[in-house]
Amino acid sequence: MLIHFPADFGKNGSRKERQVEWKALEAWAKSGKAKAIGISHYCRRQLDDILQVASVPVAVNQVQYHVGMGTAGRLATDDKSYMKQKGVLYQSFSPLCGPCDPPDNKELLTGSLVTTIGKHYNKTGPQVALRWLVQQGIPVIPKSHVAAHQKENSEIFDFELNEQDMALLTAATRPAVGGGPSASDSGDCGIEELVV
Ligand SMILES: NC(=O)c1ccc[n+]([C@@H]2O[C@H](COP(=O)([O-])OP(=O)(O)OC[C@H]3O[C@@H](n4cnc5c(N)ncnc54)[C@H](OP(=O)(O)O)[C@@H]3O)[C@@H](O)[C@H]2O)c1
Question: How far, in Å, is the centroid of ligand 1 from the Cα of 15?
Protein backbone atom coordinates (compact mmCIF):
# COMPACT_ATOMS: atom_id res chain seq x y z
CA MET A 1 0.00 0.00 0.00
CA LEU A 2 1.42 3.34 -1.04
CA ILE A 3 0.75 6.95 -0.22
CA HIS A 4 0.01 8.14 -3.72
CA PHE A 5 1.37 11.64 -3.38
CA PRO A 6 3.26 13.57 -0.70
CA ALA A 7 1.35 16.17 1.23
CA ASP A 8 2.67 19.39 -0.18
CA PHE A 9 1.33 22.77 0.75
CA GLY A 10 4.19 24.95 -0.39
CA LYS A 11 7.82 25.73 -0.09
CA ASN A 12 8.22 25.61 3.67
CA GLY A 13 5.33 23.47 4.69
CA SER A 14 4.05 20.00 4.99
CA ARG A 15 6.76 18.09 6.85
CA LYS A 16 4.40 17.52 9.75
CA GLU A 17 1.54 16.52 7.46
CA ARG A 18 3.76 14.01 5.68
CA GLN A 19 4.82 12.55 9.01
CA VAL A 20 1.25 12.30 10.25
CA GLU A 21 0.26 10.59 7.01
CA TRP A 22 3.08 8.09 7.28
CA LYS A 23 2.35 7.25 10.93
CA ALA A 24 -1.30 6.64 10.00
CA LEU A 25 -0.22 4.25 7.25
CA GLU A 26 2.15 2.51 9.66
CA ALA A 27 -0.63 2.03 12.22
CA TRP A 28 -2.80 0.54 9.51
CA ALA A 29 0.00 -1.81 8.40
CA LYS A 30 0.74 -2.85 11.96
CA SER A 31 -2.89 -3.87 12.35
CA GLY A 32 -2.09 -6.57 9.79
CA LYS A 33 -3.67 -4.99 6.75
CA ALA A 34 -0.50 -4.62 4.65
CA LYS A 35 2.69 -6.61 4.30
CA ALA A 36 4.67 -3.62 3.10
CA ILE A 37 4.05 0.11 2.78
CA GLY A 38 5.62 2.75 0.63
CA ILE A 39 5.32 6.08 -1.10
CA SER A 40 4.92 7.52 -4.57
CA HIS A 41 6.19 10.74 -6.20
CA TYR A 42 8.40 11.59 -3.21
CA CYS A 43 11.65 13.45 -3.65
CA ARG A 44 14.55 12.90 -1.29
CA ARG A 45 13.65 15.72 1.07
CA GLN A 46 10.13 14.42 1.44
CA LEU A 47 11.53 10.94 2.10
CA ASP A 48 13.75 12.39 4.81
CA ASP A 49 10.72 13.84 6.56
CA ILE A 50 9.27 10.37 6.79
CA LEU A 51 12.49 8.67 7.80
CA GLN A 52 12.66 10.95 10.83
CA VAL A 53 9.60 9.23 12.27
CA ALA A 54 9.41 5.87 10.51
CA SER A 55 9.38 2.67 12.53
CA VAL A 56 8.36 0.51 9.57
CA PRO A 57 10.64 0.37 6.50
CA VAL A 58 9.66 2.49 3.52
CA ALA A 59 9.51 -0.37 1.05
CA VAL A 60 9.24 1.50 -2.22
CA ASN A 61 9.05 4.90 -3.88
CA GLN A 62 7.05 4.63 -7.10
CA VAL A 63 7.93 7.37 -9.57
CA GLN A 64 7.52 8.06 -13.25
CA TYR A 65 10.82 7.17 -14.82
CA HIS A 66 11.51 5.87 -18.31
CA VAL A 67 13.76 6.23 -21.34
CA GLY A 68 13.90 9.94 -22.17
CA MET A 69 14.30 10.95 -18.52
CA GLY A 70 17.75 9.43 -18.01
CA THR A 71 19.41 12.82 -17.93
CA ALA A 72 16.52 14.64 -16.32
CA GLY A 73 18.54 16.13 -13.50
CA ARG A 74 17.54 15.39 -9.99
CA LEU A 75 14.94 12.83 -10.99
CA ALA A 76 17.52 10.73 -12.73
CA THR A 77 20.44 11.17 -10.41
CA ASP A 78 20.09 12.48 -6.88
CA ASP A 79 16.74 11.00 -5.99
CA LYS A 80 17.44 7.63 -7.55
CA SER A 81 20.75 7.11 -5.80
CA TYR A 82 19.48 8.60 -2.55
CA MET A 83 16.58 6.15 -2.40
CA LYS A 84 19.04 3.32 -2.94
CA GLN A 85 21.31 4.62 -0.21
CA LYS A 86 18.36 4.69 2.18
CA GLY A 87 17.23 1.19 1.23
CA VAL A 88 14.04 2.35 -0.49
CA LEU A 89 13.27 0.56 -3.75
CA TYR A 90 13.01 3.04 -6.61
CA GLN A 91 10.29 1.71 -8.89
CA SER A 92 9.27 2.95 -12.33
CA PHE A 93 5.63 3.53 -13.08
CA SER A 94 4.50 4.31 -16.62
CA PRO A 95 7.75 2.77 -17.88
CA LEU A 96 6.44 3.00 -21.45
CA CYS A 97 5.22 6.57 -21.04
CA GLY A 98 1.66 5.29 -21.45
CA PRO A 99 -0.14 8.35 -20.10
CA CYS A 100 2.12 10.82 -21.91
CA ASP A 101 0.59 13.16 -24.46
CA PRO A 102 0.79 12.14 -28.14
CA PRO A 103 3.18 11.63 -29.82
CA ASP A 104 5.27 10.94 -26.68
CA ASN A 105 3.03 8.04 -25.71
CA LYS A 106 4.16 6.11 -28.80
CA GLU A 107 7.87 6.92 -28.58
CA LEU A 108 8.78 3.86 -26.49
CA LEU A 109 6.50 1.56 -28.45
CA THR A 110 7.33 2.38 -32.06
CA GLY A 111 9.91 5.20 -31.83
CA SER A 112 13.05 4.92 -33.93
CA LEU A 113 15.58 4.77 -31.07
CA VAL A 114 14.07 1.81 -29.22
CA THR A 115 13.07 -0.09 -32.36
CA THR A 116 16.46 0.38 -34.03
CA ILE A 117 18.27 -0.83 -30.91
CA GLY A 118 15.78 -3.68 -30.57
CA LYS A 119 16.65 -5.03 -33.99
CA HIS A 120 20.18 -5.89 -32.80
CA TYR A 121 18.71 -8.15 -30.15
CA ASN A 122 15.60 -9.36 -31.99
CA LYS A 123 13.49 -7.46 -29.45
CA THR A 124 10.73 -4.88 -29.70
CA GLY A 125 10.79 -1.22 -28.70
CA PRO A 126 8.86 -1.79 -25.46
CA GLN A 127 11.20 -4.64 -24.53
CA VAL A 128 14.21 -2.37 -25.00
CA ALA A 129 12.62 0.43 -22.97
CA LEU A 130 11.79 -1.95 -20.12
CA ARG A 131 15.17 -3.66 -20.26
CA TRP A 132 16.94 -0.31 -19.90
CA LEU A 133 15.20 0.09 -16.55
CA VAL A 134 15.60 -3.41 -15.15
CA GLN A 135 19.23 -3.48 -16.20
CA GLN A 136 19.72 -0.55 -13.82
CA GLY A 137 18.05 -2.54 -11.04
CA ILE A 138 14.80 -0.58 -11.33
CA PRO A 139 11.65 -2.71 -11.16
CA VAL A 140 8.97 -1.86 -13.72
CA ILE A 141 5.19 -2.15 -13.74
CA PRO A 142 4.08 -1.82 -17.37
CA LYS A 143 0.34 -2.16 -17.91
CA SER A 144 -1.39 -3.75 -20.88
CA HIS A 145 -4.87 -5.01 -21.67
CA VAL A 146 -3.46 -7.21 -24.43
CA ALA A 147 -2.25 -10.71 -23.52
CA ALA A 148 0.40 -10.71 -26.26
CA HIS A 149 1.79 -7.40 -24.95
CA GLN A 150 1.88 -8.72 -21.40
CA LYS A 151 3.86 -11.74 -22.60
CA GLU A 152 6.17 -9.52 -24.66
CA ASN A 153 6.78 -7.26 -21.66
CA SER A 154 7.80 -10.23 -19.53
CA GLU A 155 10.37 -11.46 -22.06
CA ILE A 156 13.13 -9.06 -21.13
CA PHE A 157 15.36 -11.26 -19.01
CA ASP A 158 17.00 -13.24 -21.81
CA PHE A 159 19.13 -10.47 -23.30
CA GLU A 160 21.45 -7.72 -22.15
CA LEU A 161 21.80 -4.28 -23.69
CA ASN A 162 25.43 -3.47 -24.35
CA GLU A 163 27.11 -0.45 -22.79
CA GLN A 164 26.79 1.64 -25.93
CA ASP A 165 23.06 1.02 -26.24
CA MET A 166 22.53 1.67 -22.52
CA ALA A 167 24.33 4.99 -22.95
CA LEU A 168 22.25 5.91 -26.01
CA LEU A 169 19.04 5.19 -24.11
CA THR A 170 20.23 7.12 -21.07
CA ALA A 171 21.09 10.10 -23.25
CA ALA A 172 17.67 10.10 -24.95
CA THR A 173 15.62 13.21 -24.31
CA ARG A 174 12.37 11.92 -25.80
CA PRO A 175 9.83 11.33 -24.41
CA ALA A 176 10.91 13.93 -21.89
CA VAL A 177 7.97 13.66 -19.57
CA GLY A 178 8.71 13.81 -15.88
CA GLY A 179 6.05 12.82 -13.42
CA GLY A 180 8.69 13.22 -10.87
CA PRO A 181 9.47 11.94 -7.64
CA SER A 182 7.24 14.88 -7.16
CA ALA A 183 5.14 17.42 -8.84
CA SER A 184 6.10 19.42 -5.82
CA ASP A 185 8.59 21.32 -7.87
CA SER A 186 6.64 24.14 -6.32
CA GLY A 187 9.77 24.47 -4.25
CA ASP A 188 9.42 21.80 -1.65
CA CYS A 189 11.86 19.61 -3.53
CA GLY A 190 13.97 22.39 -4.98
CA ILE A 191 17.70 21.78 -5.16
CA GLU A 192 18.37 24.65 -2.77
CA GLU A 193 16.19 22.90 -0.23
CA LEU A 194 18.19 19.72 -0.37
CA VAL A 195 21.08 21.17 1.56
CA VAL A 196 18.91 22.19 4.52
N1 LIG B 1 1.96 5.98 -8.67
C2 LIG B 1 1.36 6.65 -9.63
O3 LIG B 1 1.02 7.83 -9.47
C4 LIG B 1 1.08 6.01 -10.95
C5 LIG B 1 0.73 6.80 -12.03
C6 LIG B 1 0.50 6.19 -13.27
C7 LIG B 1 0.60 4.81 -13.39
N8 LIG B 1 0.94 4.08 -12.30
C9 LIG B 1 1.05 2.62 -12.40
O10 LIG B 1 1.92 2.26 -13.47
C11 LIG B 1 1.37 1.16 -14.18
C12 LIG B 1 1.67 1.29 -15.66
O13 LIG B 1 1.63 2.60 -16.08
P14 LIG B 1 0.69 3.17 -17.25
O15 LIG B 1 -0.42 2.27 -17.55
O16 LIG B 1 0.38 4.56 -16.84
O17 LIG B 1 1.67 3.26 -18.48
P18 LIG B 1 2.62 2.25 -19.28
O19 LIG B 1 2.67 0.91 -18.68
O20 LIG B 1 3.87 3.00 -19.48
O21 LIG B 1 1.88 2.23 -20.69
C22 LIG B 1 0.66 1.60 -20.89
C23 LIG B 1 0.35 1.73 -22.37
O24 LIG B 1 1.33 1.02 -23.12
C25 LIG B 1 0.70 0.09 -23.98
N26 LIG B 1 1.55 -1.10 -24.03
C27 LIG B 1 2.02 -1.81 -22.97
N28 LIG B 1 2.81 -2.81 -23.39
C29 LIG B 1 2.85 -2.73 -24.75
C30 LIG B 1 3.50 -3.48 -25.76
N31 LIG B 1 4.28 -4.52 -25.47
N32 LIG B 1 3.31 -3.12 -27.06
C33 LIG B 1 2.54 -2.06 -27.37
N34 LIG B 1 1.89 -1.30 -26.46
C35 LIG B 1 2.05 -1.64 -25.15
C36 LIG B 1 -0.65 -0.18 -23.39
O37 LIG B 1 -1.57 -0.46 -24.42
P38 LIG B 1 -2.29 -1.91 -24.53
O39 LIG B 1 -3.16 -2.06 -23.34
O40 LIG B 1 -3.02 -1.79 -25.82
O41 LIG B 1 -1.19 -2.94 -24.58
C42 LIG B 1 -0.99 1.16 -22.74
O43 LIG B 1 -1.56 2.03 -23.69
C44 LIG B 1 -0.14 1.16 -13.89
O45 LIG B 1 -0.54 -0.14 -13.63
C46 LIG B 1 -0.30 2.04 -12.66
O47 LIG B 1 -0.64 1.28 -11.53
C48 LIG B 1 1.20 4.65 -11.09
Answer: 31
